Amino acid sequence: MNPTACILVIGNEILSGRTQDVNVQYIARRLTEIGISLREVRIIPDIRPVIVSVVTEARAAYDHVFTTGGIGPTHDDITSSCVAEAFGVPWVPHPETFALLEKHFAPGEFNAARQRMATLPQGATPIRNPVSIAPGFTMGNVHVMAGVPRIMRAMFEEIAPTLRHGTPVTSRSWHAFGLYEGALAAKLENIQHAHPDIDIGSYPFHDRDGHGGVALVCKGLDADEVTQVADKIAAMIREMGFTPLAGEPAHKA
Amino acid sequence: MNPTACILVIGNEILSGRTQDVNVQYIARRLTEIGISLREVRIIPDIRPVIVSVVTEARAAYDHVFTTGGIGPTHDDITSSCVAEAFGVPWVPHPETFALLEKHFAPGEFNAARQRMATLPQGATPIRNPVSIAPGFTMGNVHVMAGVPRIMRAMFEEIAPTLRHGTPVTSRSWHAFGLYEGALAAKLENIQHAHPDIDIGSYPFHDRDGHGGVALVCKGLDADEVTQVADKIAAMIREMGFTPLAGEPAHKA
Lengths: 253, 253
Description:
2 copies of one chain form a homodimer. Chain A starts with a strand and ends in a 7-residue tail after the last strand. The first copy, chain A, contains 9 helices and 12 strands. A 6-stranded mixed sheet of chain A has the order 2-1-3-8-7-6, with helices on both faces. A 4-stranded antiparallel sheet of chain A has the order 10-11-9-12. Chain A has helices spanning 12-15, 23-34, 48-61, 79-87, 95-104, 112-116, 149-159, 181-194, 223-239; strands at residues 4-10, 37-44, 64-68, 91-93, 119-121, 125-129, 133-139, 142-145, 170-177, 199-206, 212-220, 245-246. Chains A and B meet through helix 1, helix 2, strand 2, helix 6 and helix 8 of A and helix 1, helix 2, strand 2, helix 6 and helix 8 of B. Chains A, B: It holds the Pfam family MoCF_biosynth.
C-alpha cells in the first residue's frame, strides 16, 4: 500500500476568502505522481490550540503531514512553535539557520522578528529555501512549508526526493460531447463493480461555447488494469453512439 | 458571537490534483460578508465511512456545515446517502423533487440513476437548482450543494437569505512597496496586542514586475476599532519612511 498523506493549510487569509489557495492542487498532483496517497486536506485558522490539536491528530493518522503557511516573521506566524508544542519539544534557535540568516541580512537588520525564522522545534531538520532563504523544516513526519506558492513549491521539491515513494498512480481519461452522466451511470457502475481497485470518476463539463458533456477518469496502481478499464469505457461511449475523445476536455469547469 | 461554519469539500478529483477547487473561496467570501465565521475546511474523498464520520463530527461542532460535490447521478455520487446515514434517517424518494425531475427529462430518460438525484434523507428540504434542476438540500444544519461551481453558487445564493446572519466583518487594508515583514513585525505586534479583538494579517507580495512589499489587513466585527487600527497601521508605515497605499496590491501572490 502506498504511504498516506494529509495537507494542513494554515491561515486566516484562506478562511476569510482573501486568498485563493493554489498550493493544495500542486502538492496533490506531485504526491499522485510519486505514489503517495493524499487522504485529506484541512484548512485551519492561525489559532494556537487548533493548530496544535490538528497537527497532533494528523501526524498520528497519516504517514506524512505537509503544512503550508504561518512561518514568516510576524505575530500571526505561529506554525513553527505550534509544531514544537505538538511534539512536546522546546522551540529553540537552530544554530546553522541562525548563522545562515545572519549572513543574509545587512548588519543590524537581523532583528528579533527575523530571528524567529531561525527558531525551530528541537530536533527539526531545515528544508532549504532557495527563494528567500528562511527555511521550512521537517519534524518527525511533519513537513512545514511556506504559504507563498513559489517558495512552497521550491521547498516541496527539496524534500520530494527524500520521501518514501510508492507506486505512481496511472490515470487514463476520456471525454465525450453531448453525453450526460445520467445516461451512462448504470453502465459505468457495472464497470466500476468489475474493477473495485480502480477509481472511476465521472465529471460533467461545459466548454466556453456552452457545449457540454462528460469526462470519465480512471486511476489505479495497476497500469494494465487501468488500460483495461479505459478500453471498456471507450467501448461503452461508442456503443451509446458518442465519440470518445482521449484525455480531459480543454475547459473543465 | 457570530454563527460558525465549516465547509466539507467531497471529491477524489480535488485530492488527486485533477481539479482546482474554487468553491471554498466563493463560500468563504460570502460567509464573511453575511457575518458567519468560517472556522474550518476539510477536503475528503468519496469514501462512505469517511464522509459519514466527518459530517457527524462537523454538524456537532459548527452552527452550519456546507458540503460541495458528490450529488450527481453516478456511482461516485454518495454524499446524499452518507448524510442520511450521518443523521440516522432513511434515504428515500422525495415526491416533489421526483415529480420535478420526471417533468424535466424526456419520456423514458428519467432512469434509475437520475431517480437517485430525487432521493434525499428523510426530512430534508430541497435547495432549488436554477441551472440544472436536480436540487441540493438542507438536512438539519447541513447544506448539501453541487460541486460544479456555477451550480454551487446558485444553490448557495438560494439559501444565503435563510441563514441567521451575524455581524458582517469590516476589513481595511494597506500595502507598501519596499517594506518587508521582518522590518515591521515588532511594531505590528504592538498594535495587535493593543487590539486583541482585531485580526491583523501580514502578507508579503511580489507584483509581476518583481517589485515586492507587504500587505497588511485588519478585520473585525467593530467597524470603529477596525478604522482605529487601520489608522495606526498607516501611521506606522509612514513613520518607517514608506508610503501606505489603500487596499490590497493588484497582484497578491
